[in-house]
N-acetyllactosaminide beta-1,3-N-acetylglucosaminyltransferase (Cloeon dipterum), 412 residues
Amino acid sequence: MIRSKKLTSGLLAGSLVFVSLYALNTFLSPTVSGSVHVSAGNTGRNLEYVREVLASSEAPASTAAAVPEASLQQLLGCVDGVATARYGQRGEFWVLYNYVRAERQPGCADSVTYTTHGDHTFLDNLVPLLKRWQGPVAMSVFAPGADWTPALAAIQHVRHCGPSAHLVRQHVTFHFYFPAKHVPKTVPRPAVDGFSHLPKANCSLSLEQAAGLGQVSYKSTHKILYPVNVGRNVAREEALTHFVLASDVELYPNPGVIPDFLGMVHGHLLQQQKANVTKKPSPPKVYPLSIFEVKENSSMPQNKTQLAAMLASKDAVPFHKHVCPNCHNVPKAAEWMALKQSEGLHVFHVGQRTGRFLHWEPIYIGTKQEPPYDERLSWEGMSDKMTQISEQLTPKDTFKHLFCTRRDGYLK
């Protein structure tokens, strides 16, 4: 997450996305083998419609009353949770869990939670992200010392100011964390209602003014390293949904990916149930997202067709093409791009993280059962995801692909 130059990346319906299926079957272990590509085309297909199609296409010829199909929650075996405000110590950091709670609390199989992290200078990403994601977001906010005040002011601004503020109130839950040596002077105790302990939003200011973006932060003044993986782990662990997309907040998924993904998973599990699959467990699988960067001031692609056109005109490039091309070099990327856009999500290719793809750092939809990120690593040290990926994704682990884009211009 670099602010010296604004970057534009997002998770789009045409890009390749790594989505993990660790929790689809109770026997899956936290290691992955192989890579399966999922083609994402025009999204937004209604999940209920998907279920109806599955039911009608597989309905028995018998006139006997059909047995109601199992819900996704039943097939996953997940349990609904409740977000509760509390605090705790995590190594050398204090964490305020669920300090600002979203109005909507999804059931475990109702959606996919986008889990992310940042400080108060990254909150401007939330509205454009939510316009595409349209689902729950869990964000860990790093707010040491005096950075606490602008962080709260910025959060209240995005929750109450502007025509899309309702999206933030409805969908985003904020956690806070800071070093034990840099505790804010005053931290109000969370109110029972989840919001009355917060300061009033000042909508006469811009978000940049509310967040104090022109001022030197406490973090910079005191040369505090950014503990990125603490934030990643907190956000993922506190998600209420079974499936999570652990991502940097500047990456925007393609519109409609949540219902399409859940529909695809539900259909897969129904097929397994009807086939009464009893064979030995297969290796865990992940669904990765391919990431692309678009030029500053360019419109974000809404689907694969638009993405392909932007790649052809050089208005978009693969993520980190000029920084670390091997880190996001996706198997069969060219073959996937050559395919015409189609409806929904489909398995395109099964691949593996081997050979020239060994250093691939996929962002994917997974579950909370995966290994945690190594909290000893900082953002400034980079390679902050590599130990988690090395533990979680072995060379034989399975991937299934979707796609995504990054915000505000690419690095050269």
